[in-house]
Write a structure and sequence with these properties.
The structure is a homodimer of 462-residue chains.
Chain A lengths: L2 H10 L1 H12 L11 H17 L3 E5 L6 E5 L8 E7 L19 E3 L2 E3 L7 H16 L7 E7 L7 H10 L7 E4 L11 E6 L1 E10 L5 E2 H4 L6 H10 L22 H8 L5 H7 L13 H7 L2 E10 L8 E2 L2 E10 L5 H15 L5 E10 L2 E2 L5 H14 L4 E5 L4 H10 L2 E5 L14 E3 H19 L8
Parallel strand pairs in A: 3-6, 3-7, 7-17, 8-16
Antiparallel strand pairs in A: 1-2, 2-6, 4-5, 5-18, 8-15, 8-17, 9-13, 9-14, 10-12, 11-13
Helix pairs in contact in A: 1-14, 2-4, 4-14, 5-13, 12-14
Amino acid sequence: MSMSSILNALEKDSDRHLDDLVQWLRIASVSSDSSRKSDVARAADWLMDKFRGAGLAVELVPTQGHPMVIAETAPVPGAPVVVVYGHYDVQPVEPLDQWISDPFDPTVRNGNLYARGATDDKGQVLTHVQSVCDWIANGEPLPIQVKFLIEGEEEVGSENLERMLPDLADRMACDCVVISDSGQYSDGQPAITYGLRGIATYELRIDGPSQDLHSGSFGGAVMNPAIAICHVLSSMVDKTGRIQIPGYYDDVVDLVASEREAWQNLPQDEAAFADSIGVKELFGETGYTADERRWARPTFDVNGITAGHQGEGVKTIIPATASAKFSFRLVPNQDPTKITAALEKHLADHMPPGVRYQLSPDHGAPGMLADTNSRYMAAANTAIEMAFGKKPVLIREGGSIPIVTRFQEVLGCDCLLLGWGLSDDNAHSPNEKFRIADYHRGIRASALLWDQLGKLQPSESK
Amino acid sequence: MSMSSILNALEKDSDRHLDDLVQWLRIASVSSDSSRKSDVARAADWLMDKFRGAGLAVELVPTQGHPMVIAETAPVPGAPVVVVYGHYDVQPVEPLDQWISDPFDPTVRNGNLYARGATDDKGQVLTHVQSVCDWIANGEPLPIQVKFLIEGEEEVGSENLERMLPDLADRMACDCVVISDSGQYSDGQPAITYGLRGIATYELRIDGPSQDLHSGSFGGAVMNPAIAICHVLSSMVDKTGRIQIPGYYDDVVDLVASEREAWQNLPQDEAAFADSIGVKELFGETGYTADERRWARPTFDVNGITAGHQGEGVKTIIPATASAKFSFRLVPNQDPTKITAALEKHLADHMPPGVRYQLSPDHGAPGMLADTNSRYMAAANTAIEMAFGKKPVLIREGGSIPIVTRFQEVLGCDCLLLGWGLSDDNAHSPNEKFRIADYHRGIRASALLWDQLGKLQPSESK
């Protein structure tokens, strides 16, 4: 069977592909909402049925939380083994009143399918499910073995998968993990993401007096925890965005010239980018473009602060307590543990007198860099170019997908981050969508990827 | 009739005095709670009845909010005229679950009467009401004229009284305003307060991107409003508590040597003070004692900050907005209007790029200094020494009572701030109380004050 007959079959089935996605999106699998537990289970069941219908070996793997779905095609001796990782759980939908249509009643508008999970990640996961199931339904074996590992807890931190991964290592042994949970570079410009930033998140709580004090009777006599937190947070970063914690940049591997050159050729429009997010000017470390700063430079962001009176009107108090949540995005080679140690020392050195404080690290994960010269990358490049009609660009992504680093560590495999979404798909926001044409292109690119990987010489596959 | 017979009469009536206060405190006159409007009116009526019963000329003066009660004793030609100012409204009671007994079911424990309004200000107002009413009931005219101006909106800012005061100026013409809405210096050490700090309050809102952004995808490209507010707030004050706004100290009149000497002799125990408010060490401008800093040095306090994610768990965003409420306590001679202008310039000079901001001044009032050498002060000194058995100390208070400055401006009179409360009376907090013995001492001191003022030579009374 030729690849073109597969592609024709996919084309012929496109209405059913969309109908499948609509069905899956109707299931409100919000993993963080305990009242949705049965919906999360139904979403896993739906996927199990889909795999079973295509004849894959399938198993529902229980966890302490929501289960994982594992499905496998037949082994192909000598050919590469690919794990497709994704998730069937979705983000909460609040604020519900900002949705134009019901988040769980998938609706087509202007060539987009609107629903919670459309792009993140049911729609993107399903591109690989469809390509595999259709291939097999066409009566031919896949040229490679594909193992699916689709979890139900990505939106709540993947903790169970991270912990269970070593036990699953033999079963998930592979040459390459394929993940479609990201985006194209821009509308019409597909991309392969070869780098991710790491992350380290913290909560800092500063305590002063045992209760809120009257700022008239006590102002001038005690350190104000809200001022203390401003001092100490502002000591961590200067006004150009350069982090001031000693040692913070020690392990940073700077961008290489070839990367910077390649990114210079991307269709960047910083003014349009600023406009799209509602700011008059971009901001950040001098000497780097916005893409360089977002993708490959470490950053510090305060995610939230709370202290004292926040309601209407005036309440002239010295708050008893102030607290802040903040995060660093790390670049590959920075170690979250070392960052925490440097931060602890910085806080001890810079905390104003008269207050007590507690730093609570939440989670940390290193960044990731994939080998852009691997044969898997080359195969993905060809597949995407054929499916999207345009050569993909190689980019990094500023976000963090901690499980990717775990896959590299535990499975010792390559990673291919192949995103079919767009930056305005509103993942995690109201009116999430997935462009229907990108869904179909993703299915084609997926099938073409299996074909390309199947052409690798056996001796080269490991 | 001798003063000792008046004091005997007061002693004989002490049970009724307490009973009166209990009755008044049962009325939940929370001025900020619109559902309590009829209770606020009942509290005014209760006071009207009390005055009427003693034969005073009395009037309920309506305002756009809650009414004022004005009552007058007969004029005494050639003798001083005193206005007693106070308020019959009370603070809200929340958090209710922290009250040991119902805030509106006055309860005696360990010699204290617990109820909302016990010390602030019904209990303290009633000391003057009782002394005047009992004096008259004893069959003798007061040696001076006393005019009561008791409002129902002190806890919501006294805006109506401030606006109406010029129209009331003729009626309230007096030599001296007496206010008992503060405290003794410490347990067993009565005080006369001769200075108050002024105040200037603001809200600063900083806007960045049009919505919260993912700190992975966007971190490094935009100014984070929560970081911007930390930078700009920390630029306003250094780590010693010294305010960094150019011009801020220009009009500050420093403490005079005699004041500093007098305060050095107060029974100050900074370690015990720190302990009482739950901090290990006090903090503030170098070169000043804690009392000097609290009473007579200008300060900056952040009253509240809000930005981004404040709930449980991690949400790695760049918040769209951050805002803070903050206040300055000013010393006499500092002008809130000039402070606002200096602040505006400072913000313009120090605001990080990439954000928009809005400064909203709320209210401002200058500080107050009374003449410590006045004959009214001397009369109060004698009266308090006789009633409390100890000479009062002369102190300032760090809080602000804007209406006091208005009285000085509009009525051109002296002010006597005679507080009978204690610092642990929990005004504005759960379990507000008033020591019953201090209530009775306050009544005696009030009667003795009328006596002392009546002894002033007619020619000297203005």
